[in-house]
């Protein structure tokens, strides 16, 4: 059976469908004698006659009728395999393991994911929602393919596309006196209750604001902390203090919280799309190409009431 090839099956099926060698040859765009020779070669390989040959044409033998369904399925399976290989090579199928930090879970990124899914409906997405350190570790371990995160120089194999800065604004209770202001001078934070993320969860969160405070000789009161941004803004709504908060997430914040820009404005945090370019699957490359066009989030001042 080692000499049987897919072309032999195609020749057999075409003759079986037409029951006329001349018509089958025209459909296959080959000469009739080579077609007849290939069919006889297949019969010799199988050790059975697939056709009864007569002056008026050919007819399938019992062996030929038994062989036809299996031949059709084999050809169909080969076509499916070829299509699967081509789809994977073109990025139309596969899996993309995508991680992002909370400040990047914005409507803009959601719209980009929707557009990618519309363009590549057969690519599966697996999403991780983690802090910066965890995403970098997952990338380094090859457990995710792409991340929306903060810049890092930890591994030269990582490719990074800067998507722009994300400004931080001040989250405060809606009934706070500062809510009447269009912006909040940093000097007002002196001895004010300032909420941050637990250093164990994110040691870098709020450091730019604390640096801004230090340059203006301002010392906030650091009394309470939260494990993540959802808990942080919830503590603000409870009236336990004010907190720096990504402007990109203000539209999805709970009721009872308003946001004001700092004065001077707090320099935005950079967002990058990061991935290991070497060996990246085609679907991953298409995903990177799609997300590289997204804005990391709004950067204009907010006045959400």
Protein described:
The protein is of the alpha/beta class and 305 residues long. The chain has helices at 6-18, 21-28, 32-46, 62-89, 107-119, 132-140, 207-215, 229-237, 282-291, and strands at 51-54, 57-60, 94-100, 123-129, 146-149, 158-166, 168-173, 184-185, 196-197, 225-226, 243-246, 257-260, 262-263, 269-276. It is built from nine helices and 14 strands. The strands form five sheets. A five-stranded mixed sheet has the order 4-3-5-14-6. Strand 3, helix 5 and strand 4 (123-129) form a beta-alpha-beta unit. The chain folds into three domains: 6-89, Winged helix-like DNA-binding domain superfamily/Winged helix DNA-binding domain (Arc Repressor Mutant, subunit A, Orthogonal Bundle); 94-165 and 269-291, 3-Layer(aba) Sandwich (D-Maltodextrin-Binding Protein, domain 2), CATH 3.40.190.10; 168-263, Periplasmic binding protein-like II (D-Maltodextrin-Binding Protein, domain 2, 3-Layer(aba) Sandwich), CATH 3.40.190.10. The protein is rod-shaped and about 105 Å long.
Structure summarized in a few sentences:
This protein is an alpha/beta fold and 305 residues long. Helices cover 37% and strands 21% of the residues.
Topology, pairings included?
Elements: H1 6-18, H2 21-28, H3 32-46, E1 51-54, E2 57-60, H4 62-89, E3 94-100, H5 107-119, E4 123-129, H6 132-140, E5 146-149, E6 158-166, E7 168-173, E8 184-185, E9 196-197, H7 207-215, E10 225-226, H8 229-237, E11 243-246, E12 257-260, E13 262-263, E14 269-276, H9 282-291
Parallel strand pairs: 3-4, 3-5, 8-13, 9-10
Antiparallel strand pairs: 1-2, 5-14, 6-14, 7-11, 7-12
Helix pairs in contact: 1-2, 1-3, 1-4
């Amino acid at each position: 059976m080692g000499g049987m090839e897919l072309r032999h099956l195609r020749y057999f099926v075409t003759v079986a469908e037409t029951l006329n060698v001349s018509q089958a040859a025209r459909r296959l765009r080959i000469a009739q004698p080579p077609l007849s020779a290939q069919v006889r070669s297949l019969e010799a390989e199988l050790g059975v006659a697939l056709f009864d040959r007569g002056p008026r044409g050919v007819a399938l033998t019992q062996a030929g009728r038994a062989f036809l369904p299996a031949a059709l399925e084999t050809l169909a399976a080969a076509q499916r395999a070829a299509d699967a290989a081509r789809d994977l090579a073109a990025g139309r199928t596969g899996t993309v393991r995508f991680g992002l930090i909370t400040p990047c879970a914005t409507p803009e990124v959601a719209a980009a994911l929707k557009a990618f899914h519309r363009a590549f409906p057969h690519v599966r997405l697996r999403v991780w929602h983690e802090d910066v350190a965890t995403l970098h570790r997952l990338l380094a371990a090859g457990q995710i393919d792409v991340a929306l995160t903060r810049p890092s120089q930890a591994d030269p194999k990582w490719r990074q596309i800067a998507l722009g800065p994300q400004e931080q604004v001040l989250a405060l209770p809606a009934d706070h006196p500062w809510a009447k202001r269009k912006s909040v001078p940093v000097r007002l934070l002196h001895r004010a209750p300032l909420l941050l993320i637990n250093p164990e969860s994110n040691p870098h969160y709020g450091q730019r604001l604390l640096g801004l405070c230090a340059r203006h000789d301002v010392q906030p009161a650091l009394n309470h902390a939260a494990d993540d941004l959802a808990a942080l803004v919830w503590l603000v709504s409870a009236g336990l203090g004010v907190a720096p908060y990504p402007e990109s997430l203000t539209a999805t914040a709970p009721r009872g919280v308003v946001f004001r820009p700092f004065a001077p404005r707090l320099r935005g945090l950079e967002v990058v799309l990061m991935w290991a370019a070497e060996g990246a699957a085609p679907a991953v490359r298409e995903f990177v190409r799609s997300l590289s066009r997204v804005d990391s989030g709004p950067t204009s001042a907010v006045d959400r009431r």
